[in-house]
Every structure is written in structure tokens, then in C-alpha cells.
Amino acid sequence: MLYLLPAYLSENSPIDYFAPTIREIIMNVDHFFVENEKTARRVIKFFAPEKKQSELKLYLLDKYSETSDLKEAQDLMKSDVDFGLLSEAGLPCIGDPGNIMVKWSHQHNIKVVPVNGPSSFVLALVASGFNGQQFSFSGYLAIDKQEKKKQIQHLESLMQKTGFTQIFMETPYRNNQMLEDLIKYLQPNTQLCIAANINDPEHEFIKTKSAKDWSKSKPELHKIPAVFLIGK
After folding, report:
1. What percent of the chain has pLDDT over 70?
2. Dihedral of CA 127/201/141/37: which sign?
3. Which parts of the sequence belong to the Tetrapyrrole methylase domain (predicted)?
4. Contact (Cβ atoms closer than 8 angstroms) between residue 232 and residue 191
5. Nearest 5°: CA angle at 132, between 203 and 198?
6. Radius of gyration in angstroms for the set of CA atoms belonging to the chain, rounded to a whole number
7. Reading across the β-sheet that carries 226-231, which strands appear in turn?
8. ∠ CA 22-105-40 to the nearest 5 degrees?
């Protein structure tokens, strides 16, 4: 089997936010596809502190990976070895490249088992006050300034024409610049939700205001995981 395991959104998340089955799976699985080895070891320790780290066999699966890079792991899976798949945060295969092994598993009749856990953009959406029936998740926007400007204005136009909530993210160390760009390029009355430090009991910040109002009071978002939403 290939278990799609959730990772916490914040290291301060209480363990009772998560289903006990996650610990059970980790205790019974030694092989994992991971986006980042250091993060994965912390997540595994969070859920199952008694799991021996020396028993773990981790296979890097990041944005540069191709299916052909993972032949050793694939051969093990074909011989009935169970694997887990971990993202850096939240659910696997959303905003990360884990889907390539999910696709491979379907092609080779290996059962894929998604396990319940937090998704930052879903939690941000339900807490935003925006349309939760119709929405679009665009992942990470462009780094190039002009391309990013076009994307922001395009997403705003789509929201205005269709009513679909538009959801996107940024690399945490560029969050402050993203907020500056949103304030600069969105129309003043466009509603913007910022959801940061989701699932952190002490530092969680979720707020919806107009772009104009955000310009008067900007939160400090540098290196803080955040999701941005524009909607009605």
C-alpha cells in the first residue's frame, strides 16, 4: 500500500488534532517518500516518538524528482513493501510533487490510502467567509514581478466575474512582498483574507479585510506559513 500521510501545519499543533491511525501506520511502516528528510523525521517523531529513526528508509521526492529516479523504491513496492508519503506540511500531493508516485501506484495496481489530516488552503477557505462552494487553488504564483502582477489581476478578474474564491500561496520568506503586491495591484475594495500560522493555538492569525484596510495595518508575515484568498 501507499499511505498518504498528513504532516502538521505547525509544530505547536496539539496531537489530538490528528487521528490515532496516523501513529499506527507510522509504527508499521519503515519506508517513506519525503519532500524534505529533516522535516519528515520531525513529523514522524511528532506522531510516533518511540519509532526508531534508524529503522527509517527515506526516499527523496521533491519538485526535481522524476518517476525514473525512484526505481529502488518502486521495486520494493512491487514486492509488497508498504510505503508512506509525507509532504512538508499538510496533506501530500497538494502544493507538492507527491502525485507522481500516486499516479505510478495506480498504474501498477498498488492500493493508495489517503489518511485524514489538515489542508492549509481548505482551513483558510472555511475561515475566510468567502464562497466555499466554488473556488480555485492556484498554488504558488510567479516570482517575476510583472508576471505576478498579471496573475494577481487575472485572479481578481476571475473572482469578480465568476464569484469563485481565488486561493494561492507564497514561499514564507516572500510573504511580506506578496502582501505589498496585493495591496498595490488589487482594487481598494477587493476583499483579501490572510490565514497565517494555521493550527498554531497561540499564533494563528486569520483575518479578512479590504485591500485598502490592509494597507493601513500590515501584519508581519516574514517566514510565517500563510495562505492568501481573494473573494466576495
Report:
1. 100
2. negative
3. 22-197
4. yes
5. 15
6. 19
7. 135-140, 165-169, 226-231, 191-196, 205-210
8. 40
115 alpha-carbon distance from chain centroid: 15
Question: Measured over all CA atoms, what is the biggest interatomic distance in the chain, rounded to whole angstroms?
Answer: 60
According to the model, what pLDDT value does residue 64 have?
A: 77
pLDDT single digits (tens) 62-106: 877 777 779 999 999 999 999 999 988 999 998 788 899 999 999
Average pLDDT, the chain: 95
Residue type, 144: D
CATH 3.40.1010.10 intervals, the chain: 2-114
**Secondary structure E strands in the chain:** 2-5, 31-34, 57-60, 83-86, 112-114, 135-140, 165-169, 191-196, 205-210, 226-231
CB 176 within 8 A of CB 222: yes
- Give per-residue pLDDT as tens, 118-160: 999 999 999 999 999 999 999 999 999 999 999 999 999 999 9
> Whole-angstrom Cα distance, residue 32 to residue 6?
12
Q: Where are the alpha helices (DSSP H) in 54-197?
A: 71-78, 99-107, 120-128, 145-162, 175-185
